[in-house]
Design goal:
Shape of chain A: globular
Radius of gyration of chain A: 24 Å
CATH superfamily of the largest domain in chain A: GntR ligand-binding domain-like
Largest sheet of chain A: 3 strands, antiparallel
Number of strands of chain A: 3
Helix content of chain A: over 70%
Oligomer: homodimer
Number of helices of chain A: 10
Structural class of chain A: mainly alpha
Largest interface: A-B, 52 and 52 residues
Chain lengths: 253, 253
DNA sequence: TACCTTGTAGTGGTTAGACCACTGCCGCGA
DNA sequence: TCGCGGCAGTGGTCTAACCACTACAAGGTA
């Protein structure tokens, strides 16, 4: 029994045809990062499919971070940060039972290696950028939200300096998932100055191309960060519990 | 920044509302892995949006691997498998210039750590599974495609034994990207028996809980694998060049 | 009984065309 | 010169109908 009927080729769903089509255009260089793809109506007509189907495919690629859709402007091939994840680990945690401890462990492994690689391969421009962030951290250790930005930039710069964008992306994926929690707890942090000092030490190890020390400091840093975040989270939880109790008392009144 | 204005809440597009809505249902446990979400027509009505918009949101989540859509059956919350990647590194390579060397390096770092963790935390069931795969590798080292399956299972089992599913998923993402190439070159491989022996050594190190040795063997194994694949790939390329020349000669005749 | 065909209901996939909402920019008018 | 109104282009949403796939049940056939 052959596949008779009015339908032929169908690689799979039309959606996937669109995805593969655009993917190929990107892979063979027809579309390059930053390029604009044709307007949906026009593109759909060219591919001989409905606009809805085209949009389904574009949606897929957008969800994966390959395309960047701007309402009222156009759709563009993504440029810059890849965004491999897309699935904030939050949902993976709910879905597969990932724990914070596992995320921290993954981060520790990735970042300690990134630090070592950065020490081996970092270039002057990276060192300069790292130094700047350290300076900023010292200048803002009384402003948690501000500080956090420089903290993240520091780590991201190390990832860049490692010369391995794949590892950098993986780290970014994990870090992003931890960011929300971190932003909440950093306000309570009492030791941002100490944190800045650790980062300075890390910077010096990297700059002096001491891979072993860079790795060691990074490991220690992240272990400390984890335990600190844990205790602060526990505190926050406790406070929340108390305020909830207060609230319910008010509600009864 | 208050959320007032003519338009209400609107997190963003309707699509994102749908994504967040379903995400929350999963995060708070209303929807659990394997569960079926309501039929599109019904669900759309319940959310007071059009079926098209609902589908856009579902498409997003499906692209991220959170939902699993089965034509003619229904849409289900993903269960088990990885689903972090989504973007096969192939496209990232085309998009951001990732090289094979970088992928191998990332893999080396991840797997060596996974091996060490597996040695520390692996359970009896993992050891048994590893032993089985090693046996199978010896039994099939003359059948490359078959061998490759057991090879991959072996590595995947180590990842599971590490007790950190996040690292396992990251590894899976990278490995998947390398798989296609590997499948092509493994046919030419002359030393699968030697490969099996390395795996057996690795198994023994893990089983005896010698994390340091496990890490070392894994690193060595992957370095060898990389250089082997490189040279085989070079050979294949050369042959292809020759056969193309031959072909063009035939064509002229 | 055992097997296979044929419906059929339920679900996702696709289509068409219309209209809404946002962005960028051009030109009119103060 | 400056500001703002409006227009054109583009993505976002809606509707409603129909197509395609899957599973399963009912009936026929050996």
């Amino acid at each position: 029994m052959a596949m008779n009927g009015p339908n032929h080729n169908h690689d799979a769903h039309l959606t996937m045809q669109v995805v593969n089509h655009i993917r190929k255009l990107i892979e063979n260089g027809t579309l390059r990062p930053g390029d604009k793809i044709p307007p949906e109506r026009e593109f759909a007509q060219k591919l001989k499919i409905s606009r809805a189907s085209l949009r389904a495919g574009i949606g897929h690629l957008a969800a994966m971070g390959v395309l960047n859709v701007r309402h009222g402007v156009g759709t563009f091939v993504a440029v810059g940060p890849p965004a491999l994840g897309g699935v904030s680990l939050d949902i993976l945690r709910a879905l597969h039972g990932y724990t914070s401890a596992q995320m921290f462990e993954a981060r520790r492994i990735l970042e300690s290696n990134l630090a070592a690689l950065a020490a081996e391969r970092g270039r002057e421009e990276h060192f300069t950028a790292l130094a700047e962030e350290v300076t900023e951290m010292y200048a803002t250790f009384h402003e948690p939200q501000e500080y956090l930005i420089h903290d993240m930039r520091f780590h991201r710069t190390i990832a860049e300096a490692s010369g391995n964008p794949i590892l950098a992306v993986l780290m970014e994926t994990i870090t992003a998932a931890l960011y929300d929690e971190r932003r909440k707890t950093v306000e309570r942090s009492q030791d941002l100055r100490q944190s800045a000092e650790i980062h300075r030490a890390l910077y010096r190890a990297i700059r002096s191309r001491n891979a072993k020390e860079a790795r060691a400091i990074m490991e220690q840093h992240l272990e400390l960060a984890e335990s600190a975040q844990r205790s602060e989270q526990a505190l926050a939880k406790e406070e929340k519990r108390l305020s909830a109790k207060k609230k319910s008392r008010r509600a009864r009144a």
